[in-house]
Amino acid sequence: MASTVGKEIKKKTKSLVIRLVLLTVYLTSGAAIFSAIENDGSLNEKQVEVNLKVEEIKRNMTRSFNASENIIELYVEHLRRLFQKHNGCRTYGHNNWSYYQSLYFAGSVTTTIGYGHLAPKTQNGRLFLIFFALFGIPLNLLTLQSVGGHINYGIHLIIKYFEKVVLKKETPTHQHIKCFAINLLLITLWLPLGGIMYYYSEKKIGWSFLDCVYYCFVALSTIGFGDLVPNEGKEPNSSYEQGMWIVRLMYLGMGLSLLSSVFTSVCSAAKQIQSLMPCKRGMAY
């Protein structure tokens, strides 16, 4: 029996590793293709026009108020943020298809989060997106399912160990229900934990703690409104931001895996609860 279980675990672990490798290759190669197709190295006409207008306003204000360019820059940035906050939206206004941005975009497609701050503008890019999503979304779901299954298995092992060693129970009971409860607790704690992380990295752009928790929920539930995007959707330009970029990806990946684990455990828990319920007698057939 033990050898059979061991073989099954090895088989599932091997499957997980293969899926992780395939997903990684798929995302990285897809990002390279998106970047090559969409990145023409120039801003679109509307962005150029807006940038020219902003620069003209800055020059006029510098001359009129006899202030330094840095002060005017801060003032214009402050006005922009006030305008965005007043209108209840955030305009990211860039079409930067660097490799970083393309990889982030590819991840948002396969996870179906779809922030919307970056989208293909060319016909070739849109055509490629269709095929990329058709294969990428199922591959991502299979990978998350595998990770979630391993999380569930780990929780079951912890429950068994705790009940046998600490509680001195010969046979652990109601494992599926307990596993679901632990999963639910983990995903509940995952939101404020992410809120704390995002607050310290995004408070510079005006995010409150509630904004951060809200973003975590919207992202992990794959709703992806796009009203809040870390670092305003810009490419990381420092080692700190690059590190945070990786941490964010890990946070979202782990969070989605926890959700998969919750969905898996809730089915098992429901069956176990149903088996514990007394049979209804006197029912009409």
Automatic annotation (TrEMBL):
One of its GO terms (cellular component) is plasma membrane. GO terms for molecular function: outward rectifier potassium channel activity; potassium ion leak channel activity. Pfam families: Ion_trans_2. It is found in: Membrane. It is a multi-pass membrane protein. Keywords: Ion channel, Ion transport, Membrane, Potassium, Potassium channel, Potassium transport, Transmembrane, Transmembrane helix, Transport. Its main location: membrane. GO terms for biological process: stabilization of membrane potential. The chain crosses the membrane at residues 16-37, 97-115, 127-147, 180-200, 212-229, 249-270. Residues 95-148, 186-266 form the Potassium channel domain. Belongs to the two pore domain potassium channel (TC 1.A.1.8) family. PANTHER family: POTASSIUM CHANNEL, SUBFAMILY K, TWIK FAMILY OF POTASSIUM CHANNELS PROTEIN 18. This is Potassium channel subfamily K member 3. It comes from Acropora cervicornis.
